[in-house]
Design goal:
CATH superfamily of the largest domain: Dihydrodipicolinate Reductase, domain 2
Radius of gyration: 20 Å
Order of helices and strands: EHEHEHEHEHEHEHEEEEEEEEHH
Number of domains: 2
Helix content: 25-40%
CATH class of the largest domain: Alpha Beta
Number of strands: 15
Largest sheet: 9 strands, mixed
Strand order of the largest sheet: 8-9-10-7-11-12-13-15-14
CATH architecture of the largest domain: 2-Layer Sandwich
Shape: globular
Structural class: alpha/beta
Oligomer: single chain
Distance between the termini: 56 Å
CATH topology of the largest domain: Dihydrodipicolinate Reductase, domain 2
């Protein structure tokens, strides 16, 4: 079978989802899976009719590119070994647990013609792509991001590196200015070592303020992202797949506006999309075309850096 030979390392929930997308891709030769729990890997391999490898090194010998969907603790070691063996890498977010690990990966990639992509899936969400279309970066005043849900899955990271990092990455893609100050508060209810709910504020040197809230103990599911500009507001409700552009006066955005007493409102239609499939296609396309991924090692490192600054604020505020 022709196509880029791809393997998956990590066969938990995310690994399974990646496998389910790979089998849909025509230009991919899905070779097999690896997990430190071989029985789990074997079970997944049967579902997708691929090989289960009993060692990561054996998987790497048989592929051109690897999808790393293992727990975050293992991201660095798996990614580093793959890069050293000249394999293209797609690693789930967060890229690494520490900045030192991220810097080591960047150093390993130097002078290698490899593609390295970090799985910040929201970059491939039509809602976020529309925000990039409609905003004027120099007009942004404030951003509010909320990502609340309930999850009892056992993770090796807290809500900042696991959940809030989605919005951190989006905000960094919108605001091209250094961060001047970070502040944060959080609570820990279920685990004395991990924060369950965190509110953070990022003040950028250009004056923009970003407010973020993330929780994995909320019994109300909320996923909202609001961009406030000087002349308009873009409100996104991920769960309802709804987006609104609110303006003081009509503007030519090729949209139909509802004219109210104070503002004009456009309800933006969001096309159906499969962001996970799209980001995997992007990864493979980058390999085929020798182009750079939308979220590469630098973008992955930047998100980790801000997340760790927020975590340090939480530690300092205890």
């Amino acid at each position: 079978m022709s196509g880029i030979r791809v393997g998956v390392a990590g066969t938990g929930k995310m690994g399974f989802l990646h496998c389910s997308k790979l089998i849909q891709m025509k230009n991919v030769n899905f070779i097999g899976v690896y997990d430190k729990d071989f029985q789990r890997a074997a079970q997944i391999s049967k579902s997708f009719h691929v090989k289960a490898f009993d060692s990561y090194s054996e998987l790497l010998k048989n592929i051109d590119a690897v999808i790393i969907a293992a727990p975050t603790t293992f991201h660095f070691s798996l990614a580093a070994e793959a890069v050293m063996k000249n394999k293209h890498v797609f690693v789930e977010k967060p890229m690494t647990m520490t900045l030192e690990e991220a810097d080591k990966i960047k150093k390993l990639l130097k002078n290698k013609r490899l593609k390295f992509q970090v799985g910040h899936i929201e970059r491939f969400n039509p809602a976020i792509q529309r925000i990039h279309e409609y905003i004027q970066p120099d007009q942004i005043i404030n951003i509010d991001a909320k990502r609340l849900a309930y999850s009892d899955r056992i993770k090796d990271t807290d809500v900042v590196l696991d959940v809030m990092i989605h919005d951190i990455d989006i905000i960094l893609s919108l605001i091209k200015s250094p961060i001047k100050r970070v502040s944060a508060e959080g609570i820990r209810l279920r685990d004395s070592d991990k924060f369950d709910t965190v509110s953070a504020l990022l003040l950028f040197e250009n004056g923009i303020v970003a407010n973020l809230m993330a929780s994995n103990i909320s019994h109300e599911k909320v996923r909202e992202f609001i961009v406030y500009e000087k002349e308009k507001v873009i409100k996104t409700n991920y769960l309802m797949r709804q987006q609104q552009l609110i303006m003081k006066e009509l503007n030519d955005h090729h949209l139909t506006f509802l004219v109210g007493t104070e503002n004009v409102i456009a309800n933006i239609t969001l096309p159906y999309s499969d962001p996970l499939l799209e980001e995997l296609r992007h990864f493979v396309d980058c390999i085929d075309s020798d182009s750079e991924p939308l979220v590469g090692v630098d973008e992955g490192r930047a998100a980790v850096e801000v997340a760790l600054k927020i975590k340090q604020c939480l530690i300092d505020s205890k």
